[in-house]
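Whether sequence alone determines local backbone shape is best considered at the level of individual chains. The sequence in question and its structure tokens are set out directly beneath this paragraph.

===
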Amino acid sequence: MSGNARPPARTSSAWTTRRWLRVGVAVSLTVLTLLGAAGAWVLAETESISNELVDVKSPALSTSFRLESALLNQETGIRGYGATGIPDFLAPYRQGLTAQTTHTARLAELLHDDAAGLKDLKAVQDAVETWQAKIARPIAAAPAGTPSPLTTERATQGKEAFDALRAVLSSQQERLRTERVQAVEDLSSTMVLRNWVFTAIAAVIAALTVLVFEGLRRGITTPLDQLGADARTIAGGDFDHPITPTGPADLRRLSAEIDFMRRRLVRELAFTEEARGRLDAQTADLQRSNAELEQFAYVASHDLQEPLRKVSSFTQLLQRRYGGQLDARADQYIDYAVDGANRMQILINDLLDFSRVGRVHHELKSVDLGQVLTQTLSSLSVSIEESGASITHDLLPSLVADPSQMGMLWQNLIGNAVKFHRPDQAPEIHISATREGVLWRFSVTDNGIGIAPEYAEKVFVIFQRLHTKDAYNGSGIGLAMCKKIVEFHGGTIAVDPDYQEGARITFTLASEPPELTGPSTMPEATRADTEPAR
């Protein structure tokens, strides 16, 4: 049918939520990766320049100054020793030599990657070697005690050599100072660049965040809110309210599918309302039929008792007055009539009891099942005594139930156990009770003739008898009435198929039965007490 057709699919060019998310995530990751790479490069460059400044440039310049100080100490010591011949002046010279060696090695280590720096250091070392070879070492080797004549002879040469040394040192220091200043400027400019890069990264992240939230709002949140609002309107009862597809292609398809489901529900609801109308009419017919059946059961079990009582009374009068006066066949006919009237009386009373379960007996209150059992055993005392039955039971609980129905339940179950005993064995009956969650499970176990497994269900059907009336009397309503009573109280009843030593009937009862319908207004008929029947 055309009304059941699904909405047409969107074209493949429309972007779905997943595609939008994939593209957005890919673009965001690409931008963030580029910005991260730029930030990493700036940080690495900053760290490199900073390390070069802290670990090389500044230490090299300070070491050059210390080397100059060591050379000045040598020059001062040599000049003093040469002028006076006092050996104490050689101490600064010797200390300067040690410091010179240390500082020269340190500069060589710091400037191992700097060719120009190593060239300057070589020039300084050459100048030092020239001054020491021509001036320092010869004067230091002169005997102590008198001024060295070399001091006067080489005064001009010594001054020129040391001035040349100082000039080379100044050139080295100027180069190192220039490189340090350049490193500081490079570090400053790199830090400014780093700040701008990270500011740009923060701005781009903020912009991406705004774009993501705005995209989610326009592409997902707003369409879903619109869909939810439409769904709530429909859930409120306005099933004719259409659902407007918005957002990406998949959300539009979802909206179209939901709208298709809405239209289908509208059709189903219309069909359901029509079916409900028919069901209401059938329910009314069924209630009327049940009322008529209840009326029929009442009439059949109450209004027919009076004419049946008259038939029974007159047949019994015939039996007493004319018994033995007529022929044997007439006496047999009279016996048949009396027996049939009595059995009809019992059957009507049992049928009346069966129809009253759940309709007339509905007085729910706390019932001590042990006390009800005691009363039942008292009413069955004659049959119990005649059969020699032994009846034991566990401690029975108190439940919310109808006391009259509980009495009928015990009377039928125990009466059956006493009735259907083995001819050569006294009945032994035990009643057990165990708690199973919210239910109580009861078992009535006997050592009688038992129930074959194939009849385990049949025995609970009304008027179903497993034995003839000549073998065991009864109407065939007893266990059917037990089933109706148990189900009325929210339980189940069954024959235990595993028990082979007799019969075991198990049933469950709730601590409180399910809610009941209102009581029937059908009047209750007076009945005679009868023996239970299986």
Q: What stands out?
A: The longest helix spans residues 155-235. The chain has a mean pLDDT of 80. The first strand starts at residue 365 and ends at 368.
